[in-house]
Write a structure and sequence with these properties.
The chain is α+β, with helices and mostly antiparallel strands. It has two domains: 7-77 and 125-230, q2cbj1_9rhob like domain (Jelly Rolls), CATH 2.60.120; 81-123, no CATH class. It has helices at 15-28, 59-79, 82-85, 105-110, 113-123, 226-230, and strands spanning 7-9, 32-33, 48-51, 91-93, 100-102, 124-126, 130-134, 141-145, 160-167, 173-174, 177-179, 184-186, 193-197, 204-206, 209-210, 214-223. Strands 1, 2, 3, 6, 7, 9, 13 and 16 form an eight-stranded antiparallel sheet that branches. Strand 11 (177-179) and strand 12 form a beta hairpin. The radius of gyration is 18 Å and the shape is globular. This is 2OG-Fe(II) oxygenase. Residues 130-221 form the Prolyl 4-hydroxylase alpha subunit Fe(2+) 2OG dioxygenase domain. It holds the Pfam family 2OG-FeII_Oxy_3.
C-alpha cells in the first residue's frame, strides 16, 4: 500500500455514464482550447475543454460527478484524517461533558458516513468541473505543474486543497497521470477516481495518449472562504 497521498478509487462512476458523458461532449460542440493558469498555451496543454459548471444544461452531469467524487473523498479523509484536521482547528463537543475540544484523528475514524460527509461539506466546496479531451498522438498536458498558483486576484486558486480526476475511458495506450516526486504513473481506467494533494509536492503532468483519444472529468476541492468558516470579521 502506497503512503504518498495519491489514491485511486475504481468504479467511482459507472462505465455507461462515462460513455454517455463522452457522447454528450462530442455532440455539444462546446469544446474550446484548454487553458492553463495564464491562458491558452498548447505547447503546455493541448486539449479540448468544456467547463460544465457554468452551464445549466450540464447540471445533472455536474451533480453526478460531484457525488462520485464526494464518496471517494470520504474514503480519502478516513485514510488521511489530517486532510481536515491539520489546516483548521476544528472543535467537537466532548461526549463526556459537552465542552468543546479539538477534533482528532480518532474522532474522524469514529464518525459515520453522514457525520463525516456533513463535516466535509462544511469545510470544503467543489470547484468548477472541466470535461477534457486529449487527441491521440497530439494532446496532453506535458508541462510539470501543480494546482496552486497566485495569479487569481480573488485567491481562489490558493484555496485548492485536493485535485480529482475521473477517467471516462481507457481505449488508448499511455496517457497516464504522472507524479514527479512520487515516481508514479496512474494508468487511466474507465470510471476510476484519482484524488491527490494540489501543492508542489504532487507536481504532475498528463502524458499523451496513443491509439485513441483520452477523456476525463477533473476539478478540485477548495476550502470554503474565510467568512464562511470563521464568520464576518
Amino acid at each position: 500500500m502506497n503512503d504518498d497521498f495519491i489514491e485511486i478509487y475504481p468504479n467511482a462512476l459507472d462505465a455507461a455514464d462515462c460513455a454517455a458523458l463522452i457522447d454528450r461532449f462530442e455532440r455539444s460542440g462546446q469544446a474550446v482550447p484548454g487553458r492553463v493558469g495564464s491562458g491558452v498555451y498548447p505547447e503546455l496543454k493541448d486539449s479540448g475543454d468544456i467547463t460544465i459548471s457554468s452551464r445549466p444544461e450540464w447540471r445533472d452531469a455536474e451533480t453526478a460527478l460531484n457525488l462520485a467524487m464526494l464518496a471517494g473523498l470520504s474514503a480519502y479523509v478516513r485514510r488521511y484524517p489530517y486532510t481536515l484536521i491539520a489546516p483548521l482547528m476544528l472543535q467537537v463537543p466532548d461526549p463526556a461533558n459537552g465542552a468543546l475540544r479539538r477534533l482528532n484523528n480518532d474522532d474522524v475514524a469514529a464518525m459515520d458516513d453522514a457525520a463525516l460527509g456533513a463535516l466535509v461539506r462544511q469545510v470544503f466546496v467543489p470547484g468548477s468541473i472541466n470535461l477534457q479531451r486529449y487527441r491521440a498522438g497530439q494532446g496532453g498536458y506535458p508541462y510539470w505543474h501543480c494546482e496552486l498558483y497566485p495569479r487569481d486576484t480573488h485567491a481562489q486558486t490558493l484555496h485548492r486543497h485536493l485535485l480529482w480526476t475521473i477517467y471516462l475511458n481507457d481505449s488508448f495506450a499511455e496517457g497516464e497521470t504522472e507524479f514527479l516526486h512520487q515516481k508514479r504513473k496512474i494508468a487511466p481506467r474507465t470510471g476510476s477516481l484519482l484524488i491527490a494533494p494540489t501543492a508542489f509536492t504532487h507536481t504532475h503532468r498528463g502524458n499523451r495518449p496513443q491509439g485513441g483519444d483520452k477523456y476525463i472529468a477533473t476539478s478540485w476541492l477548495l476550502f470554503q472562504r474565510a467568512e464562511h468558516l470563521y464568520g464576518a470579521a
